[in-house]
Specification:
Blueprint lengths: L2 E19 L5 E13 L1 E13 L3 E14 L2 E14 L5 E6 L11 E9 L5 E9 L5
Antiparallel strand pairs: 1-2, 1-8, 2-3, 3-4, 4-5, 5-6, 6-7, 7-8
Length: about 140
Amino acid sequence: MSSTVTASFKIESWDEEEWQESPEGMKFSKAQVTKTFTGELSGTSRAQFLFAYGQGGNGYVGHERLDVSIGGSKGSFVLQHQAVGLVSDEGGAEWHIVPGTGTGDLAGIQGTASMRRLPDGGHTFNLTYDILDELV
């Protein structure tokens, strides 16, 4: 049976570097991001993302390693990110835990995560997961 935990996170650092721009207003960049999580899931993360920006829209892909504690269970796992949207979107995304990346007490973790950007600039984070004895 799946469990769901909720947390908030703060972006501690965002180091984005443009690596290509086109005359049509499109650009590409890469970013290294660190976060701190508080709530039912607490800890830190480090991520690398690739962005594509168009006129009025954008998209990104990347991976984020979380080193966290969930209900006393400590370990790490990797989230795979993929999202596209219009600049006018309120903001939100859904991600997947990369199978086989769980360590420590979180070995065997699988599931999904979602994020919503709040009007005040904050973020909410929900993780729905199972911890399996072995991956199938």
